[in-house]
Each structure stands twice: as structure tokens, then as C-alpha cells.
UniProtKB/TrEMBL annotation:
It comes from Parapusillimonas granuli. InterPro entries: MFS, MFS-Transporter, MFS_dom, MFS_trans_sf. The keyword Transmembrane helix applies. This is MFS transporter. Gene3D superfamilies: MFS general substrate transporter like domains (1.20.1250.20). The chain crosses the membrane at residues 47-69, 81-109, 151-175, 222-248, 254-276, 288-307, 313-333, 354-375, 381-397. Pfam families: MFS_1. GO terms for molecular function: transmembrane transporter activity.
Amino acid sequence: MKRAAPDWLVPIAAIFVLQTIASFLSRFIPIIAPAVSEEFGWSGSSIGYLTAANSLGGLAVLIAGSALFKRIGGMRTLQLTLFAGAVSMAFFLHPAVGVALAACFVMGLSNGAANPAGSEVLQRFSPPGKRNLVFSIKQAGVPLGGVIAGLLIPVMVAYAGWRTALFVCAGLVVLPTMLTWRVSARIDEAPAIGRPWLGRPSLQSLRALDAPLRSLLRSRGLLKISVVGSLFAVSQSCWFTFTVVYLIDRLGFSLGQAGVVFAVMQTGGVIGRIGLGWLSDYLRSATASLSLAALFSAATTALLGASTPQWPLWTIVLLAFIAGSSAASWNGVQIAEVARRSPPDQISETAAGSSILVNLVNMLAPTAFAAFVAVTGRYDYAFAAAGACTLLVLAVLPRDKKPGA
């Protein structure tokens, strides 16, 4: 007799697919930007500002989208923002940087919606005793989207041009999102009867804009684990944003070679996120696993800035893989800890609040990095400073909260 699939499999698979597509949409920017910048004459530092605009879009939906999550559901919100992001990719055809910044803002909406939507669904459907692993599997979609972008986009740019790559990438966002459309109707919690999903803003709804951040103040440990995520995001955002342009401008790599290194880094992130989630469940300690990730993240980030054109290719590839396994591995465990420390009816709010802090860093860190490099020309100091920020995780990490505590 054929066994039926477990009830949690479809929700986890659907969230994983949408998370991967949202990540692909954001990783698209730093990979295709060098080709666009070269044709339109944008400065090299523009990549940092485009990435910051993308993070600002994520921040906007986290601050203002809490009511929308509750009214139409987290998955539906994520799907709609993905469609909007795919459409906005066409604006890269305009040579003005301002138009590209606006497009990046819209593309960032889905990145902001992904964590609250995923946290609420996975907290309801995750099998007991495997929450860290399940959250980490979902978050493995982030670097997986980067792997796809790093391997696919440089090839398309080389053989068909970046304009063709734009439209192909838009199709890659739209198609999987359409395939999950009917699933969200079964997974999202139904809104309250008689409550319209759109309505006129009221004073109460405006006051609710700060609800995600206020929800983090419910306990000291909840705020600390949220700050931990923002400290990890410093190194991660710099790796994600500047690896390709750094390899091309300072180490003499081609776009294809830099794309492969980027994909290797993201592959390390897939393995690292799942591995760190398993380790946290095995040790029953998020503190131990996140401390290990912080040490390796800080070291690899500083080493990237110290690299020179004389370093053999294999050392850069190895460094990128280790960085992916550490600097990009923390998300699942940290998000699971936020959900575990949250009141059951406040998971989407606390997930949004934690993500707001991370997105603030994702916006500010690349901007500061780009400005510092533009003024000083010193990538080594910039990467070393990013690594030092992430090392502060060791001082901020809260003690593990035992189940039921």
C-alpha cells in the first residue's frame, strides 16, 4: 500500500520554492549590474546603492505589510510581490540609475515578505523536534537562488546579452510562482470574516506600523537574537553585494569566473544552512552553532579583503565555499530561535521585526561599504570592518532557551 505524503511536506516545499525565487530575484542585481554599468557608464559603487535600494524595498514591506500578511495571507503576499518584482526588471532597460534604483526597490519587496510568510507557515507545519532543520532547509533556498543566479546569468549575458537575460530571469520568477498559486489557498490562515483585505488607512492601522519592532521587546532574549541576525548580516551583505565586482575589478576575474565563485559561495550556503540547522538540533544549542558560524564568518570576510591577484584560483574558490558555509549559514537557526521565543500569536510580527533589523543592515552596510571604497579605494579595510562587526555576535548571543521555557 502506497504511503501518503506527510501533511507538512507540501507547505515546506511551497515555501522553499518561493524563498528560492525571492532570493534569485535579489541575487540577480549584483551579478548583472557590472554588465549594465559598463554599457550605461554607471560607477562601480552604484552596485552598493542598487543593493541598498533592494533592501529598502524589503524593509518597506516588513514595516507596512504586517496588516497585509494577516488580511490576505503570508504566502499570497509573497507571491504578489514576486510578480511585481518580475515586472520591475524591465526598468533596467532604461539608462538612468534612478530608474534602476526604483526597480531594485520593487524587487526587494519579495525579500521582505519571505521571512514572515515562511516563519508563520513553518511554525505551524514543522514536525516536532526538527524545527531548526526545517527552518534551515527553507532558508537554504536563499543561497540556492544565488547558485542559480551565479551559474545562469553570466552565461546568458555572455551568449545572448544582458537584455535577453533580463526577460529570461523574469520568466524564471513568474513560472514557479504561478505553480504555487493554488497551494497558498490551502496553507494561508483564513482572514477574519467580514474583514476586507484592502481598506482605508486608519489611525489604528498607522500606529500598527511599529508593531513588528515593539514585538521584539517582549523579552530580552528575543531582542538579542534579533540583533544577532543584524550583526551576521553585515558580512553576509558585503559578500553577496561585492564579491563579483571585487573579483572583476581587483583580482582580474572575468564575469564568468566571478559568477562561478559566487555560485560556489552560495552552494556553501545551502550546505551550511542545512548543516547548521542539523547541528543546532543535535546539540540542542543555537548558541553553540551560531558562535561557530560567527568565528568563521569574521575570518573569511577579512581574508577576502586581504586576497591579491597572486592568490591561486583554488584558494579563492575554497574561501568562497567556507564563507558561504558560515557567513550565509546562520539564517535558519536564527529565524527558528526568533519563532521559538515568540508568543504563538505573534510569530509573524516578531519575524517581521527581526527581519526589519536585518534589512536595515542590508541597506546600510553595502551603502557604507561602497562609500568607503569610493573615498579610500581600500577593499581590505572595508572587508575587515565587516568581519569585526560580525564577531560581535559572540558578545550579544543570548543563552539557549529550552523548549517550553
